[in-house]
Design goal:
Oligomer: single chain
Helix content: 25-40%
Bound molecules: adenosine-5'-diphosphate, magnesium ion
Length: 239
């Protein structure tokens, strides 16, 4: 459960988020909105990259302000990036191992945790490949694998579907659907691919100019004329 109250982020004269209030209880929640709407800023606040100007966020009942930024991964707040942050000169396995240094492992052998995470995202055959030798899709999947180790509570994905081929996108969809059952984490998914959001997200939150303009079951939200006008840039037409 993510509880956001009156959250504002001011970047000088620009508002990244503007008095955003939302309750997000669903296992997989979509976060959509036009470019500049504040989607990445929200992920940055939750993961600690950006400090909110005002407002409060609770995750699993815990006030985020009480969790130091360097302890958020261990608490279970994890993310992937709009531009993948894979370490180029480490193998896929060692990219995951680096995360295991900072999260609870339940005393399980590292090699087993790494093998399981690679298998989950379909990268077992690339275990010993260097980050720089992975293609864009494999890098995305490796970021997801890193986010699933060490008891995550919330995994946020920033546009994981961008630029993927059809079969890659279908595999991504399956992986996102399975994350909750696999590692217990809630998922917050930012993407422009309406088919991906529709197929994976029970509920969707729509941002525009840093505020929520709609929230509810995904199909209804995406059909809302107000959302279509903001998000698709078409003129509002309620007929
Ligand atoms: N570090 C920053 N410094 C200044 N302005 C920023 C910064 N990050 C985001 N913004 C601004 O905040 C607004 C929201 O941006 P962002 O969260 O990246 O939108 P989205 O991910 O929905 O495209 C935009 O106007 C953007 O230019
Ligand atoms: Mg963004």
């Amino acid at each position: 459960m993510i509880e956001i109250d009156d959250l504002t982020v001011q970047f000088g004269g620009v508002r990244g988020l503007s008095a955003l209030t939302a309750r997000l209880p669903e296992p997989v929640t979509g976060l959509v909105g036009p470019n500049g709407a504040g989607k990445t800023t929200l992920i940055n606040v939750l993961s600690g990259f950006v400090r909110p100007t005002t407002g409060q966020v609770r995750i699993a009942g815990q006030d985020l302000k009480a969790i130091a930024i360097h302890k958020r991964a261990a608490f279970g707040i994890r993310r992937t990036f709009q531009n993948e942050q894979v370490v180029e000169n480490l193998t896929a396995a060692d990219n995951i191992a680096a995360v295991l240094d900072n999260v609870p492992t339940g005393g399980q052998p590292r090699a087993a945790l790494i093998a399981r995470a690679l298998e989950f995202v379909g990268l077992s055959a690339r275990r010993d490949a260097l980050g720089r030798d992975l293609n864009a899709y494999q890098r995305r999947m490796l970021e997801i694998a890193r986010a699933t180790v060490g008891r995550p509570r919330l995994i946020m994905m920033d546009e994981p579907g961008a630029g993927l081929a059809q079969h890659e996108s279908e595999h991504l969809r399956d992986v996102i659907r399975q994350i909750g059952g696999y590692c217990g984490a809630q998922v917050l998914l930012v993407d422009h691919d309406v088919d991906l959001i529709s197929a994976t997200c029970a509920a969707t939150l729509v941002l525009d100019f840093g505020s929520a303009i709609a929230y509810g079951p995904t199909a209804g939200v995406l059909a809302d004329p107000k959302v279509r006008a903001a998000y698709l840039g078409v003129l509002e037409d309620a007929t």
